[in-house]
C-alpha cells in the first residue's frame, strides 16, 4: 500500500481508565488504582449491572463491567457506590476544558463521556512533539483530577483508537503509524478491532477471515459486493486508512426520525403499558416539536417479558404529518390492540416518529381541533423548558406505571 497520498496527522485517542470508578474513588479520597470499588446502577436491585469496577477489583476478583450486583465478592475492603451520572458528565466537561487549554475546540472530538480524540498538529514550538504532549496531558489529568488515562497516537482517528485499545491500555501510551499497521495490527483477531461487532465477525469468519491481516489481503471487490459501503470501510481500515475529519464541525447525518424507548424495571400488564406509552409519545413529540419537525409514520415496538421472549414492531402512516402527542398515542394504541397477544406481560416499549417534514401550518378542519392541540403541545414544552421536565405532567404520570417522574432524576438511565 502506497500511503503517500493519505493525510498524516498527530491524533491522540484518550480513554479515561475505569472512569466511573475512578471518579468515585477521587470523591472518597481514595487511590483509584489500588482501591477495590464497584459502581452499580441501583443499590436497591440485586440484579443491577456493575457499570464500572476499579482496576484493583478487576485484577483481584475478576469483576467485569457486565457483572451483576449480587455477583460481587464478600470482601471487607470493597466499596460499593451507586452511579451518579451528573458527576461523570461534569468531570467529562472539565476534562474537555483542560484539553482546550492545549488545542482549540474544533480539534477536540468527544466519542463518549470517558473517551475523545484530540488533534495536536503544529504544537511543537509550544509544547514539544506529540509524544511530549501526550505525556503532559496524562500528567496534568493525574495531578489536577487524580485520574489516569491511556493514550493512543496515530495518523488518523482509527489508528489512534485501535492502538489505544490494543496496546495503550497496558502500557499507558502507544503509537501506530501507517507503516506499523502490518506489524502491530494485522495479527489481531478481527473481533478485537474497533467497529467490528459480533455479527460482522461471524460473517467474516464464514469467509475465512479471522485476523485483520487476512481482511486487508481479501479481494476488495468481493468485500464491496458482500457488504457494500461497509465492505469498503472494512478494507481501508484494515490497511489503517481513515479519512474522517480530524478538525472542525464533525459531520452529522440528517435527522431521520425521533424515537424514545425504555426497558421497564418489571413486567407490565396491558393497562400499565398504556400509561408509559403515553409518556413515550409525549417525549417523542416534544423532541419533534423542538426541532420544528412533524412525521407521518409512527412505529410501535413491544418486547415481551424475558421468560417468554419475542414481541412485535409495527408501523402505520397518517395522512398529514403530526407532532401532536394524542394523535401519535392513538395510532400506537391501535397498533398495540391489533398485534398484542393479550396474555404476555411486557418488558420493553419504544415509539418512533419517522417520515419527517417541516412542521408548517396545519390545514384547518371544521371538525377537528388540530391547531389548538398543536398550540397546547408547544405551550407545555415552554413550561417544561422554563421550570423543569416535571413541572407539568399528565395525571397518568402519577400512577404506579408512570415512568417520567423517575426518569427525570436520571441521566443515561442512571441517577444523576
TrEMBL record:
Pfam families this protein is in? IMS (PF00817), IMS_C (PF11799), IMS_HHH (PF11798)
Residues in UmuC domain copies: 11-197
Any keyword Transferase?
A: yes
A molecular function (GO) term:
DNA-directed DNA polymerase activity
Give the UniProt record's GO annotations in the biological process aspect: DNA repair; error-prone translesion synthesis; SOS response
Keywords in alphabetical order: DNA damage, DNA-directed DNA polymerase, Mutator protein, Nucleotidyltransferase, Transferase
GO CC annotations on file: cytosol
Q: Which PANTHER family match?
A: DNA REPAIR POLYMERASE UMUC / TRANSFERASE FAMILY MEMBER, DNA REPAIR PROTEIN HOMOLOG YOBH
Q: Which family does it belong to?
A: Belongs to the DNA polymerase type-Y family.
Record-given protein name: DNA polymerase V
Amino acid at each position: 500500500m502506497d500511503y503517500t497520498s493519505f493525510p498524516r496527522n498527530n491524533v491522540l485517542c484518550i480513554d479515561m481508565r475505569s472512569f466511573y470508578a475512578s471518579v468515585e474513588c477521587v470523591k472518597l479520597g481514595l487511590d483509584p488504582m489500588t482501591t477495590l470499588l464497584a459502581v452499580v446502577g441501583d443499590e436497591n436491585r440485586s440484579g443491577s449491572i456493575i457499570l464500572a469496577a476499579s482496576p484493583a477489583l478487576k485484577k483481584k476478583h475478576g469483576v467485569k463491567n457486565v457483572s451483576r450486583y449480587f455477583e460481587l465478592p464478600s470482601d471487607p475492603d470493597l466499596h460499593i457506590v451507586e452511579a451518579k451520572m451528573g458527576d461523570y458528565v461534569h468531570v467529562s466537561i472539565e476534562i474537555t476544558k483542560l484539553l482546550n487549554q492545549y488545542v482549540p475546540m474544533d480539534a477536540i472530538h468527544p466519542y463518549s463521556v470517558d473517551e475523545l480524540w484530540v488533534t495536536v498538529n503544529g504544537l511543537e514550538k509550544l509544547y514539544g512533539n506529540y509524544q511530549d504532549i501526550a505525556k503532559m496531558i496524562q500528567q496534568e489529568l493525574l495531578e489536577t483530577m487524580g485520574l489516569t488515562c491511556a493514550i493512543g497516537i496515530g495518523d488518523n482517528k482509527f489508528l489512534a483508537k485501535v492502538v489505544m485499545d490494543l496496546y495503550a491500555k497496558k502500557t499507558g501510551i502507544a503509537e501506530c503509524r501507517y507503516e506499523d499497521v502490518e506489524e502491530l495490527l494485522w495479527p489481531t483477531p478481527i473481533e478485537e478491532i474497533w467497529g467490528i461487532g459480533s455479527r460482522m465477525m461471524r460473517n467474516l469468519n464464514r469467509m475465512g477471515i479471522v485476523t485483520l491481516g487476512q481482511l486487508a489481503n481479501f479481494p476488495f471487490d468481493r468485500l464491496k459486493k458482500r457488504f457494500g459501503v461497509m465492505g469498503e470501510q472494512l478494507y481501508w481500515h484494515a490497511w489503517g486508512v481513515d479519512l474522517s475529519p480530524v478538525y472542525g464541525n464533525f459531520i452529522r447525518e440528517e435527522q431521520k426520525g425521533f424515537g424514545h424507548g425504555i426497558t421497564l424495571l418489571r413486567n407490565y400488564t396491558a393497562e400499565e403499558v398504556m400509561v408509559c406509552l403515553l409518556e413515550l409519545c409525549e417525549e417523542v413529540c416534544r423532541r419533534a416539536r423542538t426541532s420544528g419537525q412533524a412525521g407521518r409514520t409512527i412505529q410501535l415496538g413491544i418486547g415481551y417479558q424475558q421468560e417468554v421472549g419475542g414481541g412485535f414492531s409495527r408501523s402505520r402512516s397518517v395522512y398529514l404529518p403530526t407532532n401532536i402527542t394524542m394523535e401519535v398515542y392513538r395510532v400506537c394504541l391501535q397498533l398495540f390492540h391489533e398485534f398484542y397477544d393479550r396474555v404476555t406481560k411486557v418488558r420493553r416499549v419504544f415509539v418512533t416518529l419517522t417520515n419527517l417534514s417541516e412542521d408548517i401550518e396545519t390545514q384547518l378542519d371544521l371538525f377537528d381541533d388540530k391547531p389548538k392541540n398543536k398550540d397546547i403541545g408547544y405551550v407545555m414544552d415552554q413550561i417544561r423548558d422554563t421550570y423543569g421536565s416535571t413541572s407539568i405532567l399528565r395525571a397518568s404520570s402519577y400512577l404506579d406505571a408512570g415512568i417520567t417522574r423517575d426518569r427525570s432524576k436520571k441521566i443515561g438511565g442512571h441517577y444523576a
